[in-house]
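User: Okay, second chain of the day. Same drill as before: sequence in, structure tokens out.
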Amino acid sequence: MAKYFDVHPENPQPRSITQIADAVRSEALIAYPTDSCYALGCRLGSRDGMDRIRSIRQLDDRHHFTLMCRDFAQLGQFVRVDNDVFRAVKASTPGSYTFILPATREVPRKLLHPKKKTVGVRIPDHVVTQALLAELGEPLLSSTLLLPDEEEPLTQGWEIKDRLDHVVDAVVDSGDCGTEPTTVVDFSGGEAEIVRRGAGDTGRFE
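Assistant: Same drill. Structure tokens below.
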């Protein structure tokens, strides 16, 4: 049965944030809010967590996982960014964008796209997510909480608790965070390629 954390959306309780971070460090798989719908998240090096996300979402090995990063400095540890891409990404963060970029050696091999050796990264504009990332001290390995054969992600904490109670370890509820996922921009080829149009404005990449 998943633990349920009711976290204030603007002033997250430090005790709850610490408990959630401790759970992640202990290999927990969590459902948590972001600035563009809910996500599933686990510790960066958790093979079990990644396998469970794949199972819940029925993903194949070509799926790009996302590293949810606290800030640009942390993001830069895990992906290679040249000057032109740096300016484009920097201008769009924090926000509802996921960027696909070549991974550094800091990223576990199993997370990489098998052919491209890339990974998704993003910096969320969400108070609770930022508090959790600050407490955790490392990125969260994440994927949008979109269940198989459903058109929209789950967005209510109580509903997530009800439906995923036996497949996740904790649910973090800080209110509705919308159903529109991030805009995904692939920079791995040097030029911006919009892979998915979502919550982030695509105009700057077109």
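DSSP finds six helices and ten strands in the chain.

User: Thanks, on to the next one.
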